[in-house]
Amino acid sequence: MSMSTTLEECLRTTGARYDIVRHPYSHSSVETAVAAHVPGDRLAKTVVLEDEHGYVAAVLPSTHSVRLSELWAKTGRHLTLAKETDMRELFKDCDLGALPPVGTAYGMQTYLDEALTRQPDVYFEAGDHEALVHMDVDQFLALMGNAERVRFAHRNQSTSV
Asked: Is 16 part of any domain?
């Protein structure tokens, strides 16, 4: 698989400037950062959450974890981790675990952790486990224009940058 068609269309319609960074197959965002030789704080990962109102995408640095209590307080929603089978259905054109951050393109409300807004550039999954999209932070923030910016993540203790 290459870039997801949904992401490709989203990038095209927004006129985003980006490049593709190829890397050896990886299983996790931490592995991806190492394999692609990119700083983990600049690699955005997407976590899909759900509640009785539907699904949301939470986008945060790969060096961080979602603090659900913060997200609950800021959204008023009691979100929990979505099931793997649901993610396969929601992101049909992506490999499981290689979800792009453009949740709105997949019909989901998206929350963007503020830590990513302070980076000079951002990398994120293109829809498979061997390619990243790379763009400067202004392009990324324009792409994520419909995402709500909130602080909901905390740095993992064992992760280096």
From this structure: yes
* DSSP element (H, E) containing 12: helix 5-14
pTM: 0.94
CATH number at residue 100: 3.90.960.10
Strand-strand pairing, 109-113 and 153-155:
unpaired
Per-position DSSP letters for 96-156, written without gaps between them: TT---S-GGGGT-EEEEEGGGGGSSEEEEE-SSSSEEEEEEHHHHHHHTTTSEEE--EEE-
Q: What is the mean pLDDT of the chain?
A: 94
Residue 143 lies in a domain: yes
Strand partners, 46: 59
Q: Which two tokens stand for residue 56?
A: 């949301």
- In which region does residue 60 sit, left (phi positive, over 0), alpha (psi from -120 to 50) or beta (all else)? beta
Residue 137 domain-assigned (yes or no):
yes
**Domain count along the chain:** 1
Alpha-carbon distance of 71 to 59, in angstroms, equals 12
